[in-house]
Amino acid sequence: MSEEDYPCRAFNGNNGKDEKVIKRLIENAFKDFLSGKYWDWKYKLNPNFDPSLVAVAEKNGKVIGCSHWLLRKLRISGSVEVEAFLGGDIAVSPEYRGRGIGRSLLLFFRSSEAIRNKGAVLTYTFVNPTLEKTVHEQVVPYIPAPTTTISYFKLLSWGKLRNRVEGVNEKIKNEKERLEKLSSVDLKILFQLSNVPQLFLELNRNGIKVSDGDPRSADVVVTSDLSTLSILKKKEGRKRNLIWALLTRKLKIKGGLLNLFRFYRSFWLIEEIFSGKIM
Known about the structure:
It contains nine helices and ten strands. By secondary structure, the chain is α+β, with helices and mostly antiparallel strands. The strands form two sheets. Strands 1-2-3-4-5 form a five-stranded mixed β-sheet. The protein has a five-stranded mixed β-sheet with strand order 8-7-6-9-10. A hairpin with a 2-residue loop joins strand 7 and strand 8. Helix 4 (158-173) packs across helix 9 (267-275) and helix 6 runs antiparallel to helix 7 (238-247). The termini are far apart.
């Protein structure tokens, strides 16, 4: 059969049937990961999931394959970061594998109108070099993956962060000097960290609160990413790292002059929250 026998189209996020079939395809391919809940974890529950970056292949109206892409920031060098598409999971029904459906899905994505206004300048993926001639078009040399094991950990968990805030509040209740510092603080801070939900904090004489209020009322907006936050959490060289983050715009702090001064005066409390283990 030719590739034209398997037309591709965009995923219909409003069609429950599309979602069920895609989940079944992905969970069949990755059934040993997350007990079959892989698709929900990686895509549906991902705050940056974009349904327009998913494509499906059909045969006689039946979905037999799917392809996923995610919009990501790709660091080219220490100072250059660009928007890029990361190739995600491709899954094809077992009975249709080996017929060029994966290639058709990739070509469909490359020509899709949905990607033209996303601001990305390139696409990349993690592949087996043996697939180069059949699926991928190599434009730069392959970079071998390291053979050593690398440990990763989550920097933030909002549930544990809330518990951390409660612990900090209890701690400062018994510290008269710190309570006096808070007596003149009335500040709402919005943290916009890439790839995680927003964090809205309210500081006042009673301590600190993870707020469910309107983020638009924030007095100060802090924009950054988790990797920068990880660097700032280290005690060693923290001031130097903070200055570096501000100068390179890895960390942006916006607000009126008075609010920025109040933010600086209460930064010890922010450090107290993020210095703990909130995995």
